[in-house]
């Protein structure tokens, strides 16, 4: 293949320390697994548009610049510093997940970014992102973040993954009015009132928190799916007011009365795992009981649902992992 026809290259398990090549446009470069590269300055001489680097330890952005590179992934590289990254002026996608970052300061003027992924790092301060107003998708899961106030001006966000942090305060999120996908699982949230201003929300994960009241969600008319298990919620009637709502998860909850969950043709799935339901709503629905072979009887007992209530004549009712199926 001629050099000018090259569109994709993978380089791995080598000991390259420098690159001298000049490559044609529309090029994807993948460098992974134990190369000796420590400096990305070589991409200044290439017309690389997409760069993927994985498991190359001690990599750095020092002395790097490019007006052609639009997407960069540097993951599992134990990356600790972003110094120099601001010179990549064409970037719109940046994935720095599974590294060792604790300072996002060098990103503060990269207001051309549209997607940023810093999942699984050591970040506690989001203030350097406050001016990145073109961001649409932000992934900050598994860090040490306690609040989202610093990103309140990122009004273009449609997707925010902020699960597995230490977030206790949602103040500021009410300004993110274009959010459609919001993941806040496994935090320390007690009050979800700010979410009522996020009127475009369609998918919401707030499981594994300390929430007792979900009535503020009555204003989120576009909600289609919600995961609320492992909280302390007693009143579920707000679900009946959500016209587009079709799926939710219910696990380890306080006991809701049967009339609190009124299903309809739009309600397609209710996941109930280790909850305290005493009866199944008798409208059109599909229930999926995720029961393992070792605990299926305990699950049904904890739910206080008798086999007589599992009306098998209802073709829309499917229960997976019943005693008859798993005891064989």
From TrEMBL:
Pfam families: LRR_4
Keyword Repeat: yes
Protein name, as recorded: Uncharacterized protein
InterPro entries cross-referenced by the UniProt entry: Leu-rich_rpt, Leu-rich_rpt_4, LRR_dom_sf, SDS22/Internalin_LRR
SUPFAM superfamilies associated with the record: L domain-like (SSF52058)
Keywords, alphabetical: Leucine-rich repeat, Repeat
Keyword Transferase belongs to the record: no
């Amino acid at each position: 293949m001629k050099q000018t026809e090259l569109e994709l290259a993978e380089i791995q398990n080598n000991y390259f320390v420098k690159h001298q090549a000049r490559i044609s446009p529309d090029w994807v470069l993948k460098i992974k697994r134990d190369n000796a590269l420590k400096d990305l300055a070589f991409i200044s001489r290439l017309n690389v548009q997409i760069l993927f680097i994985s498991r190359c330890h001690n990599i750095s952005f020092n002395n790097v610049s490019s007006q052609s590179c639009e997407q960069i992934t540097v993951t599992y590289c134990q990356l600790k510093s972003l110094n120099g990254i601001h010179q990549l002026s064409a970037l719109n996608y940046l994935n720095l997940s599974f590294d060792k970052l604790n300072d996002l300061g060098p990103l503060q003027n990269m207001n051309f970014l549209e997607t940023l992924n810093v999942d699984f790092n050591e970040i506690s301060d989001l203030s350097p992102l406050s001016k990145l107003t073109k961001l649409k998708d932000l992934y900050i899961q598994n860090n040490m973040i306690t609040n989202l106030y610093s990103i309140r001006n990122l009004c273009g966000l449609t997707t925010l993954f902020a699960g597995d942090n230490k977030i206790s305060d949602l103040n500021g999120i009410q300004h993110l009015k274009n959010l459609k996908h919001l993941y806040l699982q496994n935090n320390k949230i007690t009050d979800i009132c700010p979410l009522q201003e996020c009127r475009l929300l369609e998918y919401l994960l707030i499981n594994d928190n300390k929430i007792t009241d979900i009535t503020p969600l009555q204003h989120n008319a576009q909600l289609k799916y919600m995961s609320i298990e492992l909280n302390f919620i007693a009143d579920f009637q707000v679900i009946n007011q959500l016209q587009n709502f079709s799926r939710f998860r219910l696990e380890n909850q306080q006991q809701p009365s049967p009339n609190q969950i009124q299903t309809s043709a739009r309600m397609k799935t209710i996941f109930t795992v280790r909850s305290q339901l005493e009866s199944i709503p008798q409208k059109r629905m599909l229930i999926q009981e995720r029961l393992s072979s070792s605990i299926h009887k305990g699950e049904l007992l904890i739910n206080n649902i008798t086999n007589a209530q599992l009306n098998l004549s209802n073709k829309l009712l499917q229960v997976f992992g019943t005693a008859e199926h798993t005891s064989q």
